[in-house]
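Q: My labmate handed me this sequence with no annotations at all. I'd like to see what the chain might look like in three dimensions before we decide whether it's worth expressing. Could you predict it?
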Amino acid sequence: MPNIIDITDFMAPELDVYARLTEAQLYNRRFPEDGLFIAESPIVIERALDAGYEPVSMLMERKHVERQAAEVIARCGEIPVFTSTLEVLTQLTGFQLTRGVLCAMHRKKLPAPEEICAGARRIAVLENIMNPTNVGAIFRSAAALNMDAVLLTPACSDPLYRRSVRVSMGTVFQIPWTYIGDEMEDWPGPGLERLRAMGFRTAAMALRDDSVSVDDAGLMAEKKLAVVLGTEGEGLADQTIADCDYTVRIPMSHGVDSLNVAAASAVAFWQLGR
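A: Here is what I predict for the chain of 274 residues:
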């Protein structure tokens, strides 16, 4: 039976995870299994549960208990389900719950890149992408457009930040991912060497005169390809571009020089994942 608890005390410590802890405080890169994250909306929570994430508690509008959240509550056993009106929840969290349901969940220990890339044909590598919205959008495209895994460099934004999870529509739970190294010095040199040791050729998405088109026949014929995408604004580091096997660009028209990294990822994944 669900443990329904109506909110009467805003300062209850059980509510800290929703109201007072920052994303950084929830996150523990060194020991991910000791950290927490917040999943928002029933469909996203369902996808997290399907992927084996363990729920800690839920927060929702009272009206959702027997409506849109009923099935997900039933899957979560006897964890606390904190409820109130939308007005009270907005006051508590400082923002309006767009879908009325939040769930705090335990993180899991991240696998090694070699584990999630075993058998992979196409993977995405995100270099220092710091905007959670872009990370979430890239994950959604990667899951939808035939990428087998996503690797992130140590400076990337966490895919389990609340906004990333929401923008991805829960696809962060549907496609394997991990970090390629723990320290800044693990990329690009050592990270690219790990990719080559796994049999991947590397394609740096960059605007260079010597770039090949994203539909280049030789590029598309590669049996194992890692598509490397760079940070917002500056793009990939010069050393990364120099060390990759290909430099690749998306042909543009009307004098437009580039796309947002999330939009560019969708084009590249669609073409190279075919």
